[in-house]
Amino acid sequence: SMFQDSGLGSRYSATQGLEGVCHWDPWLTSKHIDGTREEDFPQFFIDILGNPDAYINILKEQGSTAYRFSLEWSVIQPTSQDAIDLYRRFIRLLQANSIEPYITLHHFVHPLWFEEKGAFKYEENGPIYKQYALDMIELFPEVTHWYTFNEIGAFTLECLLKDHPSQINSLDQAARMIGYMLKTHCDIYQEAKTDAQIGITHQWLKFYAINGNPLENFVCDLANKVAHRAIYDFFKTGHFNFQAGFLSNVSFSIPPDQFAQNNGFLDHIGLQFYGPAHIILGSNGGVNFPGHRIYNICCNTLGLGLSFGGTCPPGKSVMSFGPTVDPESLIANLQEAVELGHP
Asked: Are 10 and 28 in contact (CB under 8 A)?
């Protein structure tokens, strides 16, 4: 995301002179960013668009042949020809150095005005985003590979957990938002009248219970539906089904002939994976489990205690943002991705 590396659309943007404010800008405070002073924020961002040569040289030194980045909606539409010109220069420099650009249209960031309208919480906002996406695909015909969304499931889960600025407040709202975003992706796929290759990126984020008690299993099942299973099953079958007892009941289907005629609404799939996530909600045997947001109550001498939160199995390590360090588990997810039948 160009927001993540350059701060585009925020008051701390490393690329100066661009108008537009993204929905993360109000959240760039020490209240929402752990352990960070607000005066430190400017040092986190680099001016990739304004100084592309230095960055492209890094990519060349790494031997990169492709580079994925985002168009930041908040600064590129509808006001800024300057942003369009900077992006076009960056794209052409990548191509001149034999680095294929892969563009993500929505990477966890959208304009503040779109968030104030409810963003993807409401189905009627989907056409607003669709028109932006179609405009961008037409505006940059030199780009072949596009992703409509980055990690719908992870995005929605983070919105539900309030780790992202969002108006999503319930599991049912989260399920509906996933459905609306999937429908919007399909609409973009059908209406993009160019030679562009349209895809989506998906994080293979799966949750596993440490103890296997009913509460852990229930939470893991819900998290798996939001983050992975409901989305993966849609692109495999054309059916979206999110049922969770009295909490949510959302479903829709694409007719099989329409699903087949549109190549499953994917020309390519972006596989993203950090590691499996593990949940403990219960006994810890008197051992403090590690994790960024975990609560431990322990009596080591008696071997008794309780833990609540995201962690990792004994003998493993947990990343600062939740998943377990387990590179071998990528293999099964690669195999699952291959089953979708897309590059």
From this structure: yes
Instruction: Provide CB contacts within 8 A for 157, sequence distance 6+.
Output: 174, 205, 223, 226, 227
Structure tokens at 148: 């409509």
CA gap 108, 104 in Å, rounded: 10
- Are 106 and 76 a contacting pair, CB within 8 Å? no
For the chain, the average pLDDT equals 94
3-state DSSP percent of the chain in helix, strand and coil, to 5: 40, 20, 40
> Are the beta carbons of 229 and 220 closer than 8 angstroms?
no
> Which amino acid is it at 307?
S
- Cβ contacts of residue 236 below 8 Å, gap of 6+? 264, 339, 340
Which of 286, 287, 307, 283 is closest to 295 using CA atoms?
A: 307
Query: Which of the residues in the chain have pLDDT under 70?
Result: none
Whole-prediction pTM value?
A: 0.95
Q: What is the pLDDT of residue 24?
A: 96
Cα–Cα distance, 155 to 272 (Å, whole number): 13
Q: What one-letter code names the amino acid at 207?
A: F
Residues 107 and 182: their CA atoms lie apart, in Å, by 15
Within the chain, strands assigned E span 66-70, 100-104, 145-150, 197-203, 207-209, 239-244, 248-253, 268-272, 277-283, 294-299, 304-311
Long-range contacts of 213-216 (CB under 8 A, 24+ apart): 213/281, 213/282, 215/281, 215/282, 216/279, 216/280, 216/281, 216/282
Tokens of 48: 């990739």
Closest CA to 252 of 159, 123, 100: 123
